[in-house]
Design a protein that fits this description.
alpha/beta, 18% strand
């Protein structure tokens, strides 16, 4: 079935009265075009909106969202039987702010207070803050030990990254 026949068939299917108003061919085509364009725009996610939790080690398998949340809330220190170390971006870095907002729905002040409480009680230590906030520094830190995990915008990942989870803003 070619495109013209598909559109004609859709028109025949949808050429109905809604609240006693008949949809015209022109109105239907406008609605169809709007629907298609709106669907394409809503499905398209910019790479800037995606963050990857990753490691350089091939020892880890992909993670679930709940496991990633547990890691970045300090609820677990082990992953697949291995003790891990987490990294974090500097305080003033926008990547850090957006990552925690998208993953946990928390801003930096809330996360700082949360980690201060855990550190003071001795329950957990915050992730290691990377000094200058560059992907190169993060990759160097990750390369020193096999069981280190970090996060970065997906478009900045190194070629040898083992992506464990993709973080994106959930629809509310």
């Amino acid at each position: 079935m070619d495109k013209i026949n598909v559109v004609k068939r859709l028109y025949q299917l949808f050429n109905i009265k809604i609240n006693n108003i008949r949809i015209t061919r022109f109105g239907f085509m406008r609605c169809l075009l709007f629907f298609i364009l709106n669907s394409l725009v809503s499905l398209q996610v910019s790479a800037n909106d995606l963050y990857a939790v990753f490691t350089l080690s091939s020892d880890f398998e992909p993670l679930t969202k709940s496991k990633v949340i547990m890691l970045f809330r300090g609820k677990t220190k082990y992953l697949q039987g291995k003790k891990i170390e987490l990294s974090d971006w500097p305080q003033n870095n926008n990547i850090r702010h957006e990552f925690y907002q998208k993953l946990l729905g928390k801003d930096l002040a809330q996360m700082n207070a949360y980690w201060a409480r855990l550190s003071f009680s001795g329950k957990a230590r915050p992730p290691k803050e990377i000094d200058n906030g560059s992907v190169e520094s993060l990759v160097e830190w990750l390369a020193v030990k096999r069981f280190r995990i970090g996060y970065a915008p997906i478009d900045l990942l190194p070629a040898n990254a083992n992506v464990l989870y993709i973080v994106k803003k959930e629809k509310s």
